[in-house]
Each structure stands twice: as structure tokens, then as C-alpha cells.
């Protein structure tokens, strides 16, 4: 037996007794006899060298040492039970854990979940937001939706969905919004521009593609996340820059204006998943995302 782990059968019996506060109920749950559970508890206490339970009325209660071990056992068994339940439901029923940046989740994915449910009801998702790029193992995720550039980790399968297109956007409430109508991009040099730490290169990328000297642009208020940047633009606080799909709905409703449209960058919208994944849901989701992103750009 490994010295780094307790006897696992005994630990299973201990966890059941601690959770149910009864040897008899634990025996029923485990489909063994009362005596078998008692023997497992004695074996565990012998291995620890101290009592883990004390009798309390017709049941049992944990000692301080037992409470400590139960906390660790519950932390191990509870996720294992949940994972086993999902596995027994079958791969077609388990939700797909999809990671994406919070701004993508809030401004693009969530508004389209109803459409996804109607068009692909078999694609049940569990959405996980993170502003940091996922690690090479995509730890904890079945797939990740992101805007990024190659090269990609060798262990990823990568579904390219659409090229990234970015452009300046401004809310009609901003006092200078009318002055941008019909003005050349050089007009931006007169304004302090809203920017975000999560996409520090965005203004430079756009400037290069429209023939502006990036050094001539002046940065104003900064925000930690793209979501807040765009909310500031909607509120009329200045000119921001954003990927086209994230502002398509706002432009369609008039909450934002895009005076110079959008240009492609070297980045791409991609859906990434581990190569070891054999789930057909990955390809099905990629197909739906590709179509939905195309719809976002075609409406502008």
C-alpha cells in the first residue's frame, strides 16, 4: 500500500459514515454489512493511530482529527461523484465546458445562447469566463473560444472560425461624434482614445492598416477589460476600438457608431480543443460558431 494515501476502501467507508452520521446507513449505501463498515473504520483508525469517531446517542460523531480527515475526504469524493454522474449520463448528455474571455461571453455569446438552444439543442454548454489565455493543456475546459494568432500548441485541435476585424467605435452621446461623420481617420489625432490593457496592440494594429502613424495617436482613459471599455464608449466617454462581432448588435441598434468600418488583423476567431478529445460536439459547435460569426459581420 502507498504510504502517501490511506487505505481507499476504509476511506470510502469512513467518508460515508461521517457524511451520514451512522454506521448502519453507511452500510446500506455501500451495500455491505454493518460489521464490514466497522472493520474498515477500525483499520483506518489503526493506520492513523487515533480515534476518528466517538459514539453519540444512537449514532457517531467525528473527533477533531476525524473532522480534519473528513474535510479532505469530502473534497476528493464530492467532485468524483459529480464526474461519475456525468459520465454515466453518456457523452451526448454531458455539457461541454467552454472557456472564453469575459467580454466575448457577455457581449456576444450570452445574447446568442437562445439561438444556439433553438438551432442546436444537443449542444449543452457550461460557460467559463477568463481574461487570461488558457494554458496549453486547456485545463478544466473541453474547448476554448478565443481571438488569437498562431502558432498554436501542438496538443490543440484548432478550428478557425473567422478573421478578426477591428475598428473604432463611439457612442452618439459623445459630444464629438458628429464631427467624425465623413472625417478621415487622421481626425483621431485630435482626441484622447479609450483603450484596454487586455488588447494593448489594438489601436496600433488598426492604425497600420489604415495608413496612420500609430505614434500620432494619443491614449486617454484605460480600462482593465474590453467589456468596460465598450460600456464607456456607449456611455459617451470617448472613442474605443473593438472586434466587429462584439459591437455588431450595438451598431445595429444605434448605441454605437463605426465611422470607418472594420479592417482585418493577423488574429483569428478560433475554437480550440485538446487533440485527445473525440467528442463530435467540438466540430458541431465550431460549425455553429462559424455561421453565427458570419451573421454578425454580414449585418453591418
From TrEMBL:
Any Pfam family: HTH_1
Keywords in alphabetical order: DNA-binding, Transcription, Transcription regulation
Domain HTH lysR-type: 6-63
Keyword match Transcription regulation: yes
Record's keyword annotation contains Transcription: yes
InterPro entries, per database record: LysR-type_TF_proteobact-type (IPR058163), LysR_HTH_N (IPR000847), LysR_subst-bd (IPR005119), WH-like_DNA-bd_sf (IPR036388), WH_DNA-bd_sf (IPR036390)
PANTHER family to which the protein is assigned, alphabetical: HTH-TYPE TRANSCRIPTIONAL REGULATOR, HTH-TYPE TRANSCRIPTIONAL REGULATOR TRPI
Protein family membership: Belongs to the LysR transcriptional regulatory family.
Name by which UniProt lists this protein: LysR family transcriptional regulator
The organism's taxonomic lineage, starting at the top: Bacteria, Pseudomonadati, Pseudomonadota, Gammaproteobacteria, Lysobacterales
Amino acid at each position: 500500500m502507498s504510504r502517501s494515501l490511506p487505505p481507499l476502501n476504509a476511506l470510502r467507508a469512513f467518508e460515508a459514515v461521517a457524511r451520514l452520521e451512522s454506521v448502519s446507513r453507511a452500510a446500506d449505501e455501500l451495500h455491505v454489512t454493518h460489521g464490514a463498515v466497522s472493520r474498515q473504520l477500525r483499520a483506518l483508525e489503526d493506520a492513523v493511530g487515533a480515534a476518528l469517531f466517538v459514539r453519540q446517542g444512537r449514532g457517531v460523531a467525528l473527533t477533531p482529527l476525524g473532522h480534519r480527515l473528513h474535510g479532505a475526504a469530502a473534497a476528493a469524493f464530492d467532485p468524483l461523484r459529480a464526474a461519475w454522474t456525468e459520465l454515466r449520463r453518456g457523452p451526448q448528455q454531458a455539457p461541454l465546458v467552454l472557456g472564453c474571455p469575459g467580454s466575448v461571453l457577455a457581449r456576444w455569446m450570452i445574447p446568442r445562447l437562445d439561438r444556439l438552444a433553438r438551432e442546436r439543442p444537443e449542444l449543452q454548454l457550461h460557460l467559463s469566463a477568463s481574461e487570461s489565455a488558457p494554458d496549453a493543456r486547456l485545463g478544466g475546459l473541453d474547448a476554448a473560444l478565443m481571438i488569437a494568432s498562431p502558432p498554436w500548441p501542438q496538443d490543440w485541435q484548432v478550428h478557425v472560425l473567422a478573421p478578426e476585424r477591428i475598428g473604432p467605435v463611439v457612442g452618439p452621446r459623445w459630444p464629438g461624434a458628429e464631427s467624425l461623420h465623413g472625417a478621415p481617420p487622421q481626425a483621431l489625432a485630435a482626441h484622447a482614445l479609450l483603450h484596454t490593457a487586455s488588447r494593448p496592440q489594438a489601436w496600433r494594429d488598426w492604425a497600420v492598416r489604415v495608413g496612420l502613424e500609430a505614434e500620432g495617436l494619443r491614449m486617454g482613459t484605460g480600462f482593465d477589460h474590453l467589456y468596460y471599455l465598450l460600456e464607456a464608449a456607449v456611455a459617451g466617454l470617448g472613442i474605443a476600438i473593438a472586434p466587429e462581432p462584439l459591437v455588431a448588435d450595438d451598431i445595429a441598434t444605434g448605441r454605437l457608431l463605426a465611422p470607418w468600418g472594420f479592417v482585418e488583423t493577423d488574429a483569428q476567431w478560433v475554437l480550440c480543443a485538446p487533440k485527445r478529445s473525440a467528442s463530435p460536439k467540438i466540430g458541431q459547435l465550431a460549425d455553429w460558431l462559424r455561421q453565427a460569426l458570419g451573421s454578425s459581420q454580414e449585418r453591418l
